[in-house]
Design goal:
With 761 residues, the protein is an alpha+beta fold. It is built from 23 helices and 19 strands. Pfam families: ABC_membrane, ABC_tran.
Length: 761
Amino acid sequence: MDAGWRPLHDELASDENVLGSLEVDLDAQGRYASGAIALTPRRLLVREPGAPGWTARELAPGLRLSASDQGGVGRLALHDAGGRLAHWRYTLGRAPQAARLVELFEAQQAALREGRRWRPDEAHCPRCHAALPPDSEDCPQCERETAAPPSTWVLLRLGRFARPYRGQLLLGFILTLASTAATLVPPYLTIPLMDDVLIPFQNGQRIDPWQVGWLLAGLLGAALAAWGLGWARTYLLALVSERIGADLRTTTFEHLLQLSLDYFGGKRTGDLMARIGSETDRICVFLSLHALDFATDVLMILMTAVILFSISPSLALVTLLPLPFIAWMIHLVRDRLRTGFEKIDRVWSEVTNVLADTIPGIRVVKAFAQESREAGRFRDANRHNLLVNDRLNRTWSLFTPTVSLLTEIGLLVVWGFGVWLVSRGQISVGVLTAFIAYIGRFYTRLDSMSRIVSVTQKAAAGAKRIFDILDHVSNVPEPARPVPLAAPQGRIELRDVGFRYGARAVIRGLNLSIRPGEMIGLVGHSGSGKSTLVNLICRFYDVTDGSIVVDGNDLRQYRVADYRRHIGLVLQEPFLFFGTIAENIAYGRPDATRAEIVAAARAAHAHEFILRLPHGYDSLVGERGQGLSGGERQRISIARALLIDPKILILDEATSSVDTETEKEIQRALDNLVQGRTTIAIAHRLSTLRRADRLVVMDRGQVVEVGSHDELMAREDGAYRRLYDAQARQVDTEADDGERRSHLIAEAALPDAGAASPAKA
């Protein structure tokens, strides 16, 4: 078990084991604290958050354990017939463990009511750390996260991507048919070669050189034809499959870009990268190699079967004896492979998720000396990947040799039955030789088809994960009849706006009217809904209640791209792409001239520091703006927003990453730039919003005050006045602390400071 659970061992009886467990990480007041709950066959052991020891509660038939989510905090409660006995809190990252603990508790209570004892093995899922049910290697909690296992029929949905290449695919099929037929010619020529040439020559008869020459020429011609046709069809179908794979990647990525932000909020970067990258590559390999081999195998088996029955029906029937057994094994193994490969895909995405988290955040990892922790995360994910692969390999390693054994037994039966037919004079030695040659091809292709089951299920699992993206519909849909938006005025009205994140209401009944060219400052405590309101105005999300009206039309009546072209957005955390300074500034207008780029940089007070860079505007910035300070990145972000000359300007903590002097420069630039633009600004420092036309004070998703700075400050008990006074006191406290630190540093720097202290003492 985990190291944090070792003290629990002292509380367990010799015949008692842990069925399930939950680590709670919040105390009764919602503060972070470490606690634990463990379920055994007869007790519920609890270590309250912050408490040193364990307490026990005996299980009884009337007890009930329930898990719920309220306000973003998970709650686990224990009840009996009289009411609630105890409750615990945890962050939602523990929700899978809590749900699993409730399941185990209910199963144990059912066992108590029925008078039986339930003791699953003390095994835990390496993914969610929940206890596993007995005699099972699969975690029900993790299995619930995925839909039905992928069917092989999902591969037929790739037909929409193959449709543009119908002509090439038809030609490839014809070439496959011809090359397969060419490979079947040599065994047929062995019949006259054996019966009319070799056996008579062995018996002392003369042979016809021309007949031998024609037979050998036929063998050579068939080999050359098979080689040429095989090369042509392989090259052609490889080209087609690569284009299908490229179209699949492009379509998936384009669709991904059209999805709303809430989709990305529930996905990991590494998982999406794996789907678009490795999954499409796996499908491409399947189409270019294995699908072609499968088609060749089917044609070879069918054509060989026809030839075998035309030569000797009785011997052909014996040849097909192993086929039902092989088909039964393929059916038996297929479902295990299908679900197994999807599990492998999920587990591999865990590995890529660790990489996607750690590499971009390597500065934070090193700053907090967490290299060993991240290495441990990667090691655990890699170990889980190894475990799932080993489990699948146990099935596959038994299946493949068994199929080979059945084909060898079939070949042995054919030899025995064929020798018996030759001894009775029913077939010639040449016919038996041709049969053996054909059977070699037949069984080889049969064995190859059985192996294709593996790659087919891999491709099906990958296709399912790709189509999971393509089937997802954006929560911000395009209008059926869009209203044109050529020259917006910037009038924004919010009418009874409500918005929910899942079951949690973030904004409720919000009404606000913003005039064209007006500057609005949004203020309020963290979590009051300011950023959410900005996201709704940008239409990153759609309102769940009410409407947002822009220039007299509902926001949802405009095309998303048309509307967002008129919005300039500066985020709290500036994001820069890998490329030059000029390319980052011109991201919203790739066709902007250098003069326009420089003008935007000047307006954002970024021109001076850009010129100090080694290559000026052509200087490369690293990924996410590495090599630039936070203030420099923010000013480039502001220049990027200003270059598109937006009608609506949104500043979400735009000056939070700059020092006071830089903030003043940006504010002076913004004073000119906000003229004629509808501006919505969020700022942590309230002093930066004093020039706003109106301040909108938000609290718990509602507007509680609206007015200018002076009007709101005149209200003695107003929400804005309390916020402003609290921030002023914080600034004064920080200034006093800074002054005391300066005095101490100056005192410590005196040459005789060390000698003066004893004298004063």
